Amino acid sequence: MTANLAIDLDRSSPVPLYFQVAEQIAEAIRRGDLVPGSRLDNEILLADKLGLSRPTIRQAIQYLVDKGLLVRKRGVGTQVVHGQVKRSVELTSLYDDLRRSGQEPATQVLALEPRPVSEEIAAVLGVEPGAEVLYLERLRFAAGEPLAVLHNWLPLGLAQLTAADLEGRGLYELLRGAGVRMRVANQRIGARAANQAEAKLLDERRGAPLLTMLRTTYDDQGRAVEHGSHVYRASLYSLEVTLIER
Amino acid sequence: MTANLAIDLDRSSPVPLYFQVAEQIAEAIRRGDLVPGSRLDNEILLADKLGLSRPTIRQAIQYLVDKGLLVRKRGVGTQVVHGQVKRSVELTSLYDDLRRSGQEPATQVLALEPRPVSEEIAAVLGVEPGAEVLYLERLRFAAGEPLAVLHNWLPLGLAQLTAADLEGRGLYELLRGAGVRMRVANQRIGARAANQAEAKLLDERRGAPLLTMLRTTYDDQGRAVEHGSHVYRASLYSLEVTLIER
DNA sequence: TCGCGAGATTTGTCAGGACATTCTGACCTG
DNA sequence: CAGGTCAGAATGTCCTGACAAATCTCGCGA
């Protein structure tokens, strides 16, 4: 059963046509106009209906396949994925995640200063050992409860960060606003027991389980732009990751 | 400085040309023939050199950009990324990961039997509540130490699994061997304290921090093929995830 | 009735061309 | 000397056209 979806195209818009198509198909899926399992029209028919060429339609569909919303099979067709697969993980910060889920994040800046780096951090950031980098320590709250202690190291000169900025917005948002284009992040996720200091900050008992995350983020050019070492209260937070095999 | 790389094409091979090109560029990067930061020839020149069309070259390059090996910038060119970005995460099981890092995994099967599902599991697997599914419980060792307790639920009829199979190989490998094509996995990673039973199995104290993972894996068609609830000894294991923004 | 093969359907791969957009760097101007 | 402007170079988008490969369906024959 091929669903009949209406797609408006604006050829005068700077938004690429394939992207307009992809967005509107995705929206139809979110709205429920395209139910899981339903088949899309075939590429040639779709192209014909919209007055576009097949490569453009293919590009739109490929984009959605990469995001995990659609499945293609040769000789069969293109179908909407069953099950509510969540959006693929993006390079977002905890702050963005919390705000999106309506949890009213708040931040207390505990430290914000240039500081000479340890050898280990220098290695991951790719700077000279002993050079100064911006050290940042924050306590993050959600819904009034302490949620995480965040430690970050950033190369100097990337962005002018003030404590006021950091209390109102997330680090990633600020970096993006400063023109930093983050592209790849490597995360190591583990767990351990809280030590005394952490327990006090997070309002937990010593020994309480914490989720830990080490993350290094690289930009466009593969230069490290941020390294973070964070601990989360396991009782209040968990991470979600979606993997898509191509 | 545009590196001079030799690429052989086999037009009689069933392997797509774009893939042949991509593989050989990736190999040149791994070998070090293409050093980080070096620019590739532009697309038109490359296409000309190899006797291919520009779309084919673009497809090859796009493939490597998606894998995080190359970076493209309009008006500038295509460069090899700086820094050693790890391979993107794949749909592998703990067993594969361990064997790849040479840790000699071993498995003890604690349970393997059809069992009626709870309402919750039925919902994530997309089967009727109360229907029978294959229940699987395993204790995984690495280097002689207990490492994780693995619980899995699988729809019946996917594969004929025996305890002997499961002791010698990983679940994912067995499923793949049975023709199951896994494509998307959704993971939720958290942490909590070990209870008495877990502590005993894993040779830890009660209350020791454990890394927890809930995973649901879907196939080609978006049908759930596996749901797992696993706990790992945080002192011995952590998860690594690489994110690439497109 | 059941199995198998031919044909139809659909996506996968590849070619070649055209124009738009963006970035860099050199040049010109005040 | 500083700043803006413009040309060149590279990727981004979009088009048309063609054939290959995988899959499903239906009809035919045993």
Describe the structure.
Chain A is an alpha+beta fold and 246 residues long. The first copy, chain A, has two domains: 17-80, Winged helix-like DNA-binding domain superfamily/Winged helix DNA-binding domain (Arc Repressor Mutant, subunit A), CATH 1.10.10.10; 94-233, 3-Layer(aba) Sandwich (Chorismate lyase), CATH 3.40.1410.10. In chain A, 28% of the residues lie in helices and 33% in strands. Chain A contains eight helices and nine strands. In chain A, the strands form two sheets. A six-stranded antiparallel sheet of chain A has the order 3-4-5-8-7-6. Chain A has a two-stranded antiparallel sheet with strand order 1-2. In chain A, strand 7 (209-219) and strand 8 (224-233) form a beta hairpin. The longest helix of chain A is centred in the N-terminal third of the chain and has 15 residues, at 17-31. Chain A is elongated and about 65 Å long. The two termini of chain A are 26 Å apart. The mean pLDDT of chain A is 84. Strand 6 (182-193) of chain A pairs antiparallel with strand 9 of chain B, so a sheet runs across the interface. Chain A binds a DNA duplex (30 and 30 nucleotides) through helix 3.
